[in-house]
Amino acid sequence: MKIGFSRADEAFREEVAQWMAQHLSGEFAALRFRGGPGDEHSFPAQRKAWERELAAGAWIGVGWAKEHGGRGLPISQQVIFHEEYARAGGPGRMGHIGEGLVGPTLAAFGTPAQQQRLLPGILDGSTFWCQGYSEPGAGSDLANVQTRARLDASGEHWLISGQKVWTSLAHEADWCFVLARTEPGSQGHHGLSFLLVPMVQPGVRVQPIQQLTGTSEFNEVFFEQAVTSADNLVGQPGDGWKIAMALLGFERGVSTLGQQMQFHNELDEVIRIAQANGAARDPLLRQRIAQAWAGLKVLRYNSLRMLCGAQDGSLSREAMIYKLAWSTWHRDLGKLAMDVLGDAGEVLEGEPYELSRLQALFLFSRADTVYGGSNEIQRNVIAERALGMPREARV
Q1: Which cofactor does it need (predicted)?
Q2: Structural domains in the chain?
Q3: What pTM does this model have?
Q4: Which of 251, 346, 354, 384 is the catalytic position?
Q5: According to a count of CB atoms within 10 Å of the terminal CB, is the N or C end of the chain lower?
């Protein structure tokens, strides 16, 4: 595990920090520290413009292979970019799903034609993606997907019918990658396929879901005989589960270090308030703050262990524990934030009742241990896949 950075790496760190300081100004100054989890509804048009600004600076796809249009930077410099981006207050990425999930998946499983057609729009910040996995009856239990797709009589188009849920920023997306059942009568992991579906068409309807925070970045997406070209199938029919799992492996990649820097920013805010309002004198709160700081360090070192392995979408043991670890840590940070705020955390000044950063953290982090695979499912994954224990009984 590499803990330190070379002289060249530190020079690169300075380059990133300087670029961020210069460009997160003027029209983009208002985006600093905005658009993250719980705040993804904020400034969508400006954040799309920011993606184009990043593209102009060649900061999209820094870890992609050069043959796919990326910069092919080593892991150490990818880590530095994501950390410095978050440290500078870079806004939540509208292009994260495309760059972090779709791009690596197409590089690994897509045809040359699909790569040439779809990767440039991610790299230039003009095309945005959303994820079509979870369903009302298939959240953490992804193998229970019921959305169906069939080829039309001509064999040139897939027709998709079904419902997806918790689809982040679907109302802002141009494309959705959809896990659908293409083999009639199939069950579980079998008979699933991975389809790329254009969002702007009559067969796709997006309905917002209002959350505790009052925002609606999540959506339900209804596919009613939605159409996508036959050449938008990634891999072969029936490869969907394999590709979907690899994509989730890519999700546990180098951007996790940027996520942790955002957590660090939140913890710094909690500490600042504790020092200002006297909460830091409470011995129990002091202990919890220290535990939060130590826990964040453990998350960092585990992520570095994850990055020491193959970056091909496979899940190492270190990667299997990551979702359980960070979601529990972040939920506890939300509780700590409210206890540090005290009575001030319970009230707002008046309409329009805009939540403070830490109030939004508390409410949104309630969902951290549920979405993306609940804690209970994550423990099953660790037990069965990492430790080789008997599978949970199914009824």
Answers
A1: FAD
A2: 7-94 (1.10.540.10), 129-239 (2.40.110.10), 252-386 (1.20.140.10)
A3: 0.87
A4: 251
A5: C
